[in-house]
Amino acid sequence: GQSLEQPSEVTAVEGAIVQINCTYQTSGFYGLSWYQQHDGGAPTFLSYNALDGLEETGRFSSFLSRSDSYGYLLLQELQMKDSASYFCAVPNAGKSTFGDGTTLTVKP
Amino acid sequence: NAGVTQTPKFQVLKTGQSMTLQCAQDMNHEYMSWYRQDPGMGLRLIHYSVGAGITDQGEVPNGYNVSRSTTEDFPLRLLSAAPSQTSVYFCASSYDGVSSDEQFFGPGTRLTVL
Asked: So what's the pLDDT on residue B100?
């Protein structure tokens, strides 16, 4: 089976940096994805790590350590619009498994 | 491109009624999936398809049927609605289910079963 653990809530102030962690237990592993979901909206893809290390896309970065079964999403220069839920996910040929999500609240 | 479309956006059913949630994509993606999302929780996979004519069960398939007669369409059927099926349903598609898994989600169908 697959299971992913991530914190339920994180709060930070505008302009700060926040890290959202994800640990996983899977029977087969190809990589780790991250999605963003604003309240009432559909999830949107942010990043995917197939290899160990850091992937940077603008203000967002994602990290993976296969040996530790661990990854994180790093959000820099936080903006109010970053307030949303963030999900880590393990893809597997159409059978993606998602964590329960981390609700990020950005305060002025 | 319209991306992934879902109809209806909202639906209220009575216990025991049946209905079909529609999903279509115009990106020629082979992989399509149905998820349900309950309040404060992540997405749970109901059924998925890796191509026309091929479907398989996900984590929570009971009470739901799917078929995939074309690449574009992937309808989800509720056989006999129950209050436990009150949820938000998302359809998603992806080009490759493994190498990047960038899934594109539809806007969702908000279903209430009374």
From this structure: 67
pLDDT, position B1: 80
Q: Which helix (H) or strand (E) covers residue A18, if one does?
A: strand A18-25
Which among B42, B94, B102 is the nearest to A98, CB-wise? B42
B46 close to B109: Cβ distance less than 8 angstroms: no
Can you tell me the mean pLDDT for B22-31? 94
How distant is the Cα of A85 from the closest Cα of chain B, in angstroms? 9
Considering only the beta carbons, identify the residue of B58, B99, B100 that sits closest to A95. Answer: B58
Residues of chain B in contact with residue A87, where contact means CB-CB under 8 angstroms, are 42-43
Region label for B41, one of left (φ > 0), alpha (ψ between -120 and 50) or beta (otherwise): beta
B55 to chain A: nearest residue by CA? A94
Beta bridge partners of B54: B51
* Alpha helices (H) along chain B: none
Each residue's pLDDT tens digit, A79-102 = 999 999 999 999 877 778 999 999
Going by C-alpha positions, the residue among A36, A41, A85 that lies closest to residue B107 is A41
- A76 CB-near residues (< 8 Å, 6+ apart): A17, A59, A60, A61
Burial class (CB in 10 A: 0-12, 13-18, 19+), A58: exposed
Which ranges of chain A have pLDDT less than 70? 1
Give me the residue from A94, A99, A101 closest to B33, CB to CB: A94
